[in-house]
Amino acid sequence: MAEEVLRVEHVAKRFGPVVALRDINLHLRKGEVLGLLGDNGAGKSTLMKILCGFEKPDQGRMLLRGEPYEPKGVDHARGLGIDAVYQDLALIDELSVFQNMFLRRERVHRPLPLLANRAMRRETRAALDEIGIYIPRLGAPVARLSGGQRQAIAVARTVHSEADILLLDEPLAAMGAKEGALILDLIQRLKEGGEVSIIMVLHNYVHVLASCDRVNLIQDGVITLDKATHETSVEELTAIVVDEYRRARQAANGVAAPAR
């Protein structure tokens, strides 16, 4: 059994009257790819933001490599080895491809703190080549790029970091089939390396079963399913989600749902 690198215990989060997370319990092992499923509003992105230091939980605790983990912010979390691809990509339209690639992690010359633009361009090209995505002009503002190219920059930036725990919130969202296949291939290579652990939010159950070692399902702010992917199926996952949707509709209409 691989060592555990991350554990979440009884984490909850509210935004005013809205309960985003009720009672989250989750664990991640070294070299594991964990798929995180759930409908819109189930709490997936909120959990990812808590894990990467963007939000603070209202209660519960987290452990990173067996030690208490209370990130003070995104930079602090990154310094501890956790980096993220956000659902909104966290790119600045006016900045170039390579500037976004090194946003808040710029390379500088020493002893004078001058930006090492040539080195950042070179490393950006190598990171994109590793994925298989070609963007001709690395000095062009990202506002001019397609959704898939923007997504590739966000993924490459996170994978190219020194983090050994990656949080990927819908990394295939804006990509076509070809680009998405390249990202899934990259994730497979990382998994085979065995050094990087990944939590990945996906909506396509086929991708989850093909790319992940284990799957968690969040429903109404609670993880209701934790299974190895070889022990479940697209049909089971679909049936669970449909059943929960039916129960939610019945509750909204004041109809008592049958016992589980």
Count the DSSP helices.
8
Order of helices and strands: EEEHEEHEHHHEHEHEEH
Give the terminus-to-terminus CA distance.
32 Å
Proportion of residues in extended strands = 15-25%
Low-confidence stretches: none
Work out the number of β strands.
10
Global morphology = globular
Give helix % range.
25-40%
Q: What is the quaternary state of this protein?
A: single chain
Give the overall pLDDT as a whole number: 92
Task: Please summarize the sheet with the most strands.
Answer: 6 strands, mixed
Please state how the strands of the largest beta sheet are arranged side by side: 6-7-8-3-9-10
- Indicate the radius of gyration in whole angstroms: 19 Å
Describe the structure.
Helix 4 crosses helix 5. A 6-stranded mixed sheet has the order 6-7-8-3-9-10, with helices on both faces. Strands 2-1-4-5 form a 4-stranded antiparallel sheet, covered by helices on one side. The chain is of the alpha/beta class and 260 residues long. It has 8 helices and 10 strands. The mean pLDDT is 92.
Helices, strands, pairings?
Blueprint lengths: L3 E12 L2 E12 L3 E5 L6 H8 L7 E6 L2 E2 L5 H6 L2 E4 L11 H5 L15 H15 L15 H14 L4 E5 L7 H17 L3 E5 L3 H7 L2 E6 L2 E7 L5 H19 L8
Parallel strand pairs: 3-8, 3-9, 6-7, 7-8
Antiparallel strand pairs: 1-2, 1-4, 4-5, 9-10
Features:
260 residues; alpha/beta; 6-stranded mixed sheet; 4-stranded antiparallel sheet; 8 helices; 10 strands; 35% helix; globular
